[in-house]
Amino acid sequence: MLKNFLTVGGWTMLSRILGLVRDQLLAAFMGAGPLQDAYQVAFRLPNMFRRLFGEGAFNAAFVPLFSSVLTKEGKDEARTFARRALGVMLLWLLFLCVLGEIFMPQVLRLIAPGFLQTGERYALGVSLSRITFPYLVLICAAALVAGVLNGLHRFGIAAAAYLAFNVVGIAAILFASPFLPNVAYAAAWGVTASGVAQLGLLLWAAHRAQFGLMPLWPALTPRIRLLVRRMVPGLVGSGVGQINLTVDTIIGTLLPPGSVSLMYFADRINQLPLGVLGAAAGTTLLPVLTRYLAAGEHDAAHAAQNRAMSYVLLLTLPAVAGLLALAGPIMIVLFGHGSFTEHDALLSAQALRAYAIGLPAFVLVKVFSPAFFARGDTRTPVYIGIGVLVLNFLLNLLFMKPLAHMGPPLASSLAACANVACLAILLMRRDALQVSGREQFRMVKTACAAILMGVVLLGVQALLAFPSGLSLRILWLGSMVGLGAVLYAVLLHVFGIMNGADLLARVQQRLRKRRA
Length: 516
Prior knowledge:
- The chain is an all-alpha fold.
- It has helices at residues 2-30, 34-73, 75-102, 104-111, 119-132, 135-151, 155-160, 163-176, 183-208, 222-237, 240-253, 259-294, 298-335, 342-357, 359-373, 379-403, 407-429, 437-463, 470-494, 500-515.
- It has 2 domains: 2-435, no CATH class; 436-516, no CATH class.
- It is built from 20 helices and no strands.
- The longest helix has 40 residues, at 34-73.
- The radius of gyration is 23 Å and the shape is globular.
C-alpha cells in the first residue's frame, strides 16, 4: 500500500509543481482583478462537476463495484460493466453540457452574482465558461478510465496522465495568447484541449493493459441501477469540499474585485499538500479496503485505514506549520511578479493561512470517506455533507464582511473540521475505525514535532528579515524550508516516531533491489 501511496503521491506532486508554473503564468499575465476573476469562475464550473461526477460520486460508487466484479466474476464481466458505465456517463454528461452551453448566462448569474455589478466581468465570464464547459465531459470520462486502471492496480499511469492538464495549459498560455483576444481566452481553450489529451492517454493505457473501453450503448442493467443508486447520494457526500469551494467563489464575487483571484492563488498553494496526500490516500485506500472487506479480512482493513491516517498526518501537520509561519514569503516568491503585486501576494497569504488551518481535516476526509464507500454506504456521508454545506454557508455569511477575502477560506476550514469529526465519530460507533492508544500517542507526538518546528521557523524569521531581490528571497525561502524539514526529521527521531537509521536502511535496500 505504501508503494502505491508514494507512486500516486509522486506523480501528483509533479503535476502540482507543473500546476504551480501554470498558476504563476496566470498571475504574472492577469494579476488579481476582473480578468482573472472571470477566468477562475469559468474554470471553477467544469472543475466542480469533474470532482462531483468524475473523481467524486461516480468513482466512489464505481471503483468498489468494479473491484468486486473483477475479483468475483473475472476481467470480461468487469470490462463489460465498465464499458456500459462509460456509455451511461457520456450520454448524461453530453446532455448536461448542451444544457450548460445554452443556459450559461443564467448559470453564471447563480454562481457569480457579484459579476452582475460590472457588465464586463459578466460578459467575459459567460464567454470563457462556454469554452471551458466541454472539459467536464472529457475529464469525467477520463476519471472513469482512471478508476478502471486503479482497480487493476495500475496506479502510476492513471496518476501520470493528469500531467497533461498542466502541460497543455502552460503551452496554451505561452503560445496561443498572441492569436486570441487575451490570455484568459488562451487559458480557457487550454483547459478543454487538456481534457482531450488526458482522456486519450488513459484510453491508450487501458488498451495497453488489454482492457479496451469502447463505450456500450446505455442500458439500465441491474448493476448500472445499483451504480446510480450508490452514486446519487454521494454527489454531496464525496464532493463537500468542492461544493464548499464553489460557495466560497459565489461569496467571493460579492466581495471587492480581485477577491476571487486572491483566494484562488492561496488555495493553489494549499492544494499542493492537500492534492498530493488526499489524492494518494483516497485513490489507493478505496480499492484496498474494498478487497479486504470483500474477503472478510476486517483486521487488515482497520490496519490499512490506520496506516493511511498515520501517513497523511505525518506529512500534513508539518505542512500546516510551515504554511502558517511562511505564508507571506511563499506567496511573494511564487506569485509576486508582473501584474500580481507584492501587496496582492500579502493579501493572498492571509487567505492561505485561513485555508491551512483546515488542511489536516481536508485530507482526513479523503481518508475516512473510503471507509463508508468500501462498505457500500454512500448515504451517511451525504447526510453529514448537507449539514457541512449549511454550516459553511452560514459561516461565509458571518465572516464575509469583517474578514473579506479571509472569510470564505476560514469558513471552509472550520466546516472541514466539523465534517471530519462527524465521519470519525460515526466510523468508531460502527467499529469501522479502531485507533489504539499507541497510535493516538504517536499522532500527538507528531503534532508536537510539527508545532515545535513552526515555532522555531517563526523565531528564525524574526531574527533574519525577509530580504529584497528575487534571488536572495528564493535563497532565504529555500533555506527556511530546508531548516524546517531537517528540524522536523530530527524531532521525529527524538520522539521515537521514526528511526533515521532504519529508514535509511530501507531506502538503500530498495535501491539495491532496483539495481538488481
